[in-house]
Amino acid sequence: MDYTQFLDPNSINMDYTRIMDICKISYILDRFSIKENDKILDVGTGTGMLIPFVHQHNPKGNIKGIDKSKHMIQIAKEKFKNIENIEFQLADVECDTIKGTFDKIILFSVFPLLENKISTIKKLIENNLSDDGKLLIAHPESRKSLNAYIQTHSPLSTPKLLDIYQQRNIFRQAGLDVEEAFENDRIYYLILHK
Known about the structure:
Residues 34-154 form the Methyltransferase domain. By secondary structure, this protein is of the alpha/beta class. The protein has helices at residues 3-7, 14-17, 22-31, 51-57, 70-79, 117-128, 143-153, 164-173, and strands spanning 40-43, 63-67, 86-90, 102-108, 129-139, 177-183, 188-193.
């Protein structure tokens, strides 16, 4: 089962059913050092739940959200139709070519849904990340909490998150540069660069 078949029927309610801890999101985005006028790619944007936080850090920069769910992209486009530096595209990051280069690429609460994690991250870094750009993989929950949720609620065969140091080492063995890897009982994130 494709994750869009699981999420699409609930996409209209997605913003209301997902509890987002503003302090955690702000902390993670602060660690990511978004600069004014950065071009940002939000991979797996869904209904654009992260967009207001990114836009607050970067009100003048261009933000592009991509997702493979047609329903979620439609909702995101409607929500942000009056903000000119935000755009959305229906795209599957694992299969489609994403055009453009970006100063920052964000995968927020989407990493476990990727089937080909390493090759997808490599492709994004090689093809879409600017020379001094950074890529963020983040979750506003602990690994333990997220893995428990996946195990009990997901009808998908979604792999669990690995220990942050195991994931960092897998990326490094694949030739990727990990700048920071952190997890505790509240958050999980990795920052990679070109």
